[in-house]
């Protein structure tokens, strides 16, 4: 039975869609698998790594046993190799001090360990994705691009850091909910992000606002304000520019002009809306900003905005003027293309 039969054509539960993607990409699983992962992912990982370690110790023990017959002076105790009084060996055997397993055995042991680790990495990433999706409402049954899923799981199998596994789990969940959310180019960029670079991006991204479908960081009119009050340094911005998440250039601005009609400027920080009403013939309004690249915009979907009221007021104060009124409210939802929000309040 196709997964969309239970809900009607065109809709599917997110967790079912995830299972279908995984079954096509990395093997068949069931919903109970994710319940198990919630409980004992760490125990399972420890068990598998312990098995690999035990196998390694077995190999060492065998080598020690065989060498003891030759040297009479090598002992294996408490997972350590110790050399006691070596006995005199004939000249022809003095070069044969350590016997190792056959090459094919060593190769298979190494490959088995590496493949087990890759499998654990994929399972952890998909478990994070399942956590994101398990309470979500029905979504489109549009399939994911096969090239995308192939590239994604090839990357995911190499991700061992738990924080980065969380990020990749969110990426998979986002792509499940809305295919084509993350380009192949963005996957490759994120693949090369270090943990520190990801943390810096998250710190900066929490202050990002959206205007007209694009995202920006307000520089403020005081050059040290971002650094002094919010811990965002020029070095942070420079780094994100170098790795391709913020566009280069220090002179970018947003310009708002209302020559013939009244204009409403709507800036969004997560669920906070700032609405500025600008009367016609008001002089042009300019805001100095840092602009995110395409990859930066895609990665922003993973970060929850946590902008504070003081920073929001700094942004609004920068566009104050005669015939301009700014208010704010909180987004409640959508009615088609229209945003539903709480009653707007004036900034104090």
Produce a short descriptive summary.
With 348 residues, the protein is an alpha+beta fold.
Q: Report Rg.
A: 29 Å
Gap from first CA to last CA: 58 Å
Main beta sheet: strand number and arrangement? Answer: 5 strands, antiparallel
Estimate the mean pLDDT confidence. 77
Based on Cα principal axes, name the global outline: elongated
Query: Which structural category fits the helices and strands?
Result: alpha+beta
Taken as a percent bin, the fraction of beta residues is 15-25%
| Helix-strand sequence | EHHEEHEHHHHEEHHEEEEHHEEE
What's the helical proportion of residues?
A: 40-55%
Low-confidence stretches: 1-7, 70-74, 83-89, 91-97
The total count of strands amounts to 13
Total helical segments = 11
Task: Please characterize this protein's 3D structure.
The N and C termini lie far apart (58 Å). This protein has 11 helices and 13 strands. It has helices at residues 14-25, 31-71, 103-133, 146-156, 162-177, 184-191, 195-205, 225-230, 234-242, 294-300, 309-317, and strands at residues 11-12, 74-77, 80-83, 139-140, 209-211, 214-218, 253-258, 263-269, 272-278, 282-291, 324-335, 338-341, 345-346. Strands 8, 9, 11, 12 and 13 form a 5-stranded antiparallel β-sheet that branches. The chain has a 4-stranded antiparallel β-sheet with strand order 5-6-10-7, with no helix packed on it. Strands 1-4 form a two-stranded antiparallel sheet. By secondary structure, the protein is an alpha+beta fold. The longest helix is centred in the first third of the chain and has 41 residues, at 31-71. α1 runs antiparallel to α3, α2 (31-71) runs antiparallel to α3 and α6 (184-191) packs across α10.
